[in-house]
Batch of 2 targets.
Target 1
Amino acid sequence: MLPIDLSGRLAVVTGASGELGRVIARTLALAGADLALTYLNNAATAEALASELAAAGRRARAFRADVTSAGSIAALRDAVTEWHSAPDILVNNAVIQYPWKSVLEQPLADYESQFRSCVLHNVHMAQAFVPAMIPRRWGRVVAINTECAMQNFVTQSAYVAGKRGMDGVLRVLAKEVGEHAITVNQVAPGWTVSAKDRVAGTEVNEGYSRNVPLRRRGTDQEIANAVAFLASDLASYITGAYLPVCGGNVMPAI
Ligand SMILES: NC(=O)c1ccc[n+]([C@@H]2O[C@H](COP(=O)([O-])OP(=O)(O)OC[C@H]3O[C@@H](n4cnc5c(N)ncnc54)[C@H](OP(=O)(O)O)[C@@H]3O)[C@@H](O)[C@H]2O)c1
């Protein structure tokens, strides 16, 4: 057996109160990690998840943090480190949701919010948490990007700008911290089935799936599996990667 073993590791998952964040956190916990779960508004969900993971034998705690604020992420680092230790694994997953409009109609505030929640989120997390990984010579940064960053579909300009911007930060970071045995990778989901679809019965979308080589939407668990792999020792020689988990819907060129 070849296990994904994260026992003894502490992971921070931003946006752990969200659709994908919850499943990513559960999956890292199943692999043995302890979890610092961040939320912005949905404290009840994050705290319920922390209780669930603690009942399963992990150390887990919910923390309120605004990923757009350097001060909030610095405070998160101090609180997490005091509670447990300096984290080994960062999962930069949170995103600000907003209505998608054409470039001609999209309010400038949405470009700014995507810059803050995609680009600066990743900068704040790196500046707060990577320094403590350096002397330990072990660290994992796994950021959640999207297939949309390669598609450039209409109405997605602010989202695409934010996600393509974070891609640049993360590729540079991978080069800068590689000598310390810290890896920096991105998982890029397609349009993913999550709990809200299961509740609403909207898992199937033939219009979308028709163009996907695997002919279906992926699941939150399939995204979380890729995150767990990249967070593990099995992925020790992978860095700077943008890994689509989208059934082949986008394929980066070589
Ligand atoms: N779902 C998909 O099909 C899909 C596809 C491709 C890529 N993605 C990517 O996957 C990631 C997760 O998406 P999702 O669909 O799971 O999103 P979601 O359900 O809307 O969750 C968003 C999360 O981000 C948190 N958040 C929002 N603004 C924040 C801020 N300023 N500071 C801190 N946390 C903040 C929310 O916290 P509260 O709820 O507590 O306020 C929530 O936990 C995103 O990066 C997204 O771009 C998703």
Target 2
Amino acid sequence: MRRILSRALVAAMAAPAAAFAVQACTGDDNVVTDAGLDASILDAAGDATEDVDVDAGPCAPYVVAIDAQAPDGGIECGIFQRFPCGVPSGLTLYQDCYFLLDDCQSVCPGSLYFNCHMYGDSCLDGSIQPDADPIVECATCPNGVGRRPRGLRNPGKNKAKSDSRVGAYFANAAHLEAASVHAFRILRRELEAHGAPADLREGAARAEADEIRHARATSKLARAYGAEAKHARVSPCALRSLEDIALENAVEGCVRETFGAAFAAWQAEHAQDPAIRSAMQKIARDEARHAALAWGVARWAESRLDQAARSRIATAKRRALRDLEAELDRQTHPELASRAGVPSMEAQRVLLRTLETELRLSA
Ligand SMILES: [Fe+2]
Ligand SMILES: [Fe+2]
């Protein structure tokens, strides 16, 4: 696994540098991906507010939702703000319906965002629709990868008080790391219940302990940048069938956590803040082991399942790969790239494509 991750890093080094200039609005790379988050989900979002300031006038933008739950159970981090009289004029769209980062200051509340874009039908083919009642989504957490447990609850409003993107980044990372503690605890118990070999059970127990350290380390980094991590809350769920466990492991482990391991390894090499680099070096080492564990669990579980179940798992893995590819549509802010070593969007895509090939993820 370490050799494969190293090959992915080498390949991603050759990725073109992140571009923050205005870009063309056509071509395959410019497809806006909002799959899985439609208006009905937005209406039903957790922590939804109709935060209207009656003193601000009828055209004042107002927040309609903070964070939303996607159909797959994941969290779409964002502040969704409606502009009853349209978005301010003179703003520049790039990458289809995304605003330039500097323009996000004009359309997002506060300053904790990673990018912002026109949401839903209010922007089509790179053009703001004149008669629409536009909503802008301001992303409050960056692309995050890791093992998310079933039953993970919406983290609610971001508690971060600072205006540091790095602080917010690590506050969200700490939430995901804390969620991974639950994920491995559940996996360990389910492996025990299904009579998995000792090395897999011990691997899950060790990973659970690793993730506690990761949550502490990333919380500390968040605090160092003035932000506060959110707690991870997970609703209890019943013991699952082996196929359900293998399905989750394929998506969360073989796809997302494996990519997360490569992502962390990149940060360990590129973060300019010595404290971040040091923390990411330890985390990257552990995450490579977690990725290997996921593939070990997959081999064991699938050896006990029939062909039809294996085929459903392969389909789920391919879909998770496509979903993750679609998530890699955000330019990395320069501050995150330099201080925290977050790979550029282009480098993330190369990392994923290399892993896809090396691990035959789409097979
Ligand atoms: Fe972790
Ligand atoms: Fe992990």
